[in-house]
Design a protein that fits this description.
Length: about 350
């Protein structure tokens, strides 16, 4: 059986907020580049120590992180370089500190039982993928880390809040959780809406940019409440894992927005336990793979940053993009019918 005793049961940015644990002691030029190193293919990445502003390899990175309680590895979902770095660092850290826990945004608390059954070889991978269900890119992106955990008896935490609850909070606001049955309420953080002002500012700026300023205040507040429910649930899940497994190190995977610049899940975890030693690793997209450059501001986004190539454009044909967005919002409206409210309010997605 797994060591953890968990309950069975989007999202993203940049802020001018320095790393709390590792201040920068130098004044690098506005832009740095590496003429002798480039990003030749989709799995290429260059890791930069934000304190020294110098490249490091994966072994040196692991050595510098081995004494931290929690290591956040931010990712661009589906980016090959992000997932390769995660797998390599997990393996390197395990050699240095085998008391390890893998925590994942990609699984939700109410999926913990199915995840545990897979880790204990009670069900096969198709059962996990179909019945959890896992993210669509599970096999290509997260299988290596889950399999490493399974082979080495490492607990895996389904850290996130259930998507259905988060979606309904986004529609109806914070008060929605008062309508939840006790069993479902246990699948989100007890303090679901602990806040961080810098993170809120960052989130609102992001929403303004994404929606071109066309979002009323109530909807914006509800969207942030939904985001907080995710971040607080992940923070609480990580803290529980540490409390139930003393002397372990947690590696937590999430989209970069949840941890960038020590905000999001990181800030809310530190509010819960300021004594924790937390490190943040953040990806940075590079415009020219053959001449990778980064800026002073990029260095504020993590204790370490790693440079990666951009992923392919999702949409070029504008009409196809509109069709895809229409289908997405149509699906959201359909899913919203599961909320514990008879009639949707004017907060229904448009």
């Amino acid at each position: 059986m797994r060591l953890l005793k968990f309950l069975s049961a989007t999202t993203l940015f940049t802020a001018l907020f320095g790393c709390q644990n590792q201040p920068i002691h130098h004044s690098p030029p506005e832009s740095q580049s590496l003429k002798d190193i480039n990003l030749t293919h989709a799995y290429s990445r260059i890791i930069i120590d934000s304190q020294s502003n110098r490249p490091v390899n994966i072994s040196k990175l692991a050595q510098s992180l081995k004494d931290y309680d929690v290591v956040f590895i931010g990712e661009y979902h589906g980016n090959h370089a992000s997932h390769l770095l995660q797998m390599q660092l997990q393996s390197e850290l395990f050699q240095l500190r085998p008391k390890q826990i893998l925590s994942m945004e990609m699984f939700e608390r109410d999926q913990q039982t199915i995840l545990n059954r897979y880790l204990d070889s009670e069900v096969g991978e198709k059962f996990l993928i179909n019945e959890a269900p896992a993210w669509q890119n599970y096999s290509a992106s997260y299988r290596p880390m889950v399999e490493f955990a399974k082979e080495h008896f490492i607990p895996v935490v389904a850290a996130n809040a259930p998507g259905d609850i988060v979606r309904c909070i986004g529609l109806y606001g914070k008060s929605y959780i008062d309508l939840l049955p006790a069993g479902e309420k246990a699948s989100i953080a007890q303090q679901s809406f602990l806040n961080n002002e810098a993170y809120q500012t960052k989130f609102y700026e992001f929403m303004k940019e994404m929606r071109h300023g066309k979002m009323d205040e109530k909807r914006k507040a509800n969207s942030f409440a939904a985001q907080l429910a995710r971040d607080n649930t992940m923070a609480e899940s990580i803290l529980r894992a540490l409390q139930e497994n003393p002397m372990h190190q947690v590696i937590h995977l999430n989209g970069s927005f949840h941890s960038e610049a020590h905000l999001g899940t990181v800030a809310l975890l530190k509010q819960r336990d300021p004594k924790l030693r937390v490190a943040v690793i953040t990806p940075i997209r590079i415009d020219d793979p053959l001449d990778p450059k980064w800026s002073i501001n990029d260095l504020t986004k993590g204790d370490y940053i790693y440079l990666v190539r951009s992923q392919p454009e999702e949409y070029i044909d504008a009409s196809y993009r509109r069709k895809a967005m229409k289908n997405m919002f149509s699906n959201a409206k359909e899913k919203a019918k599961s909320c514990y409210i008879s009639q949707p309010s004017n907060q229904t997605p448009d």
